[in-house]
Write a structure and sequence with these properties.
The structure is a single chain. With 240 residues, the chain is an alpha+beta fold. The chain is 27% helix and 32% strand. The chain has helices at 29-33, 35-48, 79-87, 146-158, 191-204, 229-238, and strands at residues 7-8, 11-16, 18-23, 56-66, 69-78, 97-105, 111-116, 126-127, 130-131, 170-175, 178-186, 210-216. A hairpin with a 2-residue loop joins strand 1 (7-8) and strand 2 (11-16). Helix 2 packs across helix 3. 33% of the residues are buried.
């Protein structure tokens, strides 16, 4: 992987030496003031995808980075509120979609990503295997375990465990009302072997969240139509 610049495609990058996430009380005025529109949007989305579940998720309301140390405050919201917020262009500048993800890199220099399944809220989109943090990620002292959230989602979606000796090197990619905490991890296998293991896991699942896997080796492999901005920005800065 090449050295990442401080900014790319409108997204900023920060290498983190420490990451502290905490759950805080927060009165989300935007969600309260738009409750009727949120309910109508949810009804429309659920009618199209009945498997969607309106459970609690955690969103960001403050984030600071100083000398490689990041602190982010998160609050609990309904998934329906988050979905209306995101689909509406993230109209509240005080709130961000904050999440963590493992970025698996193969021995032959490819990043491996998943294609979201047709029943998911992001069907067809190409992501690093990840998910929005939720209350199950909250630990003692209202600490939010973003690293645990990332490794759990990665295991659930790919069947792979992060190597125990993987360094805890985080990259924060910020932009478009998102804070993506990315943990690049080098795996000893080539991309084809990694994808084969992931596909075997996916095939054994009763209701897999992912529909496929893709390997990205260069900027030529980027898909502007199906990859979110933070994914394209990170890979454009990391691939040759």
């Amino acid at each position: 992987m090449s050295e990442r610049p401080a900014q790319s495609d409108g997204f900023t990058f920060a290498r983190l030496e420490s990451l502290e996430a905490r759950l805080v009380p927060y009165d989300w005025a935007w969600a309260r003031d738009n409750s009727d529109a949120i309910a109508a949007h949810w009804a429309e989305r659920q009618a199209a995808k009945p498997a969607l579940f309106d459970g609690p998720v955690l969103l960001g309301c403050a984030c600071t980075v100083t000398d490689g140390a990041c602190t982010i405050d998160l609050f609990e919201a309904a998934f329906s509120e988050f979905l209306a917020f995101r689909d509406g262009g993230s109209p509240d500048p005080s709130v961000t979609n904050a999440f963590a993800a493992i970025v698996p890199w193969s021995r032959d220099g490819a990043a491996v990503l998943g294609v979201m399944g047709r029943d998911s809220a992001n069907a067809g989109q190409i992501y690093f295997p990840c998910g929005t943090p939720d209350p199950s990620d909250v630990r003692a002292g209202r600490h939010v375990d973003l690293a645990g959230s990332a490794t759990r989602e990665f295991l659930e979606e790919t069947g792979l465990r992060v190597p125990s000796d993987a360094p805890a090197n985080w990259v924060l990619v910020s932009g478009e009302r998102q804070h993506a905490f990315l943990h690049p991890v080098d795996f000893p296998e080539e991309a084809s072997a990694l994808i084969a293991r992931m596909e075997a896991h996916r095939a054994a699942e009763a209701e897999p969240e992912l529909a496929d896997f893709v390997a990205v080796r260069s900027r030529a492999d980027l898909d502007a139509d199906r990859m979110p901005g933070f994914v394209r920005a990170y890979l454009a800065a990391s691939c040759r």
